[in-house]
Amino acid sequence: MNLAFLIAVFCYGFMQLVETFSFGSRVAGKLTGNLALGTTLQHTIFICSRVFLPPLLLAISFQIESGETLENFMFLSAVMTGLGLVLSILILIRLNSCQRNFQIIFFYSRDYRLPTCIWKLVVSDNRDIVVVNRDLAPKFGYIRWSKLLASGFAYFFIATSFLLAFSIALIFPDYRLTISQFSSAFHGIGAGFLALYIDPMISRSLDVAEDQEDWLANVFSVLAGRICSLGLAFFIFFLSYCYINGLPY
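Above: the chain sequence. Below: its structure as tokens.
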């Protein structure tokens, strides 16, 4: 375990944490009637999380160029996706707390820009700010299986695009520079599906659904699909590591 390994794990875990946390903005926007602001803030935070992508890719690339074996890369991928899975589950469990924080940001956004709003959220005493609370505990009955599968499909490629490409590149090292470019293709599959189906579906649901269970079911289904995609990726990489290493599984 070296510095590049730790950088890759930290950056990947933090990206997954921030991206899942950003869903609280959509929920807060629905509860407070700030749908446009909630959507904008989610996309802003999602894009800001990409600042950790260059050091993540550089750390992984350094590992590979330093003679990383496929076995060790499978272990690294399993640790990264496993951490992302755990952090995403924690956010889902604490979704109400997440959306309450976004409501406070909405309050400050009347007078300040986003960086200042986030700073005041962290350092200010926000107990006097009135927020809307909802029971957002995960419920099995909220799941819409077709939307969970669609979300899982999209987020699997988004979360693992470069891991899949680098894994294949390690199998065919003579063509690793060419194969590594497939990360954009894998990511494009998930991003296209997300942009053309999942994101419009959530926006439409938040715009027109009056019954809380209807729009919450869509939000929870998408979040559950995201978590399932990370779980699937973790098991794929972990079982691959066990198979290559000759461990029982």
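The first helix runs from residue 3 to 21.
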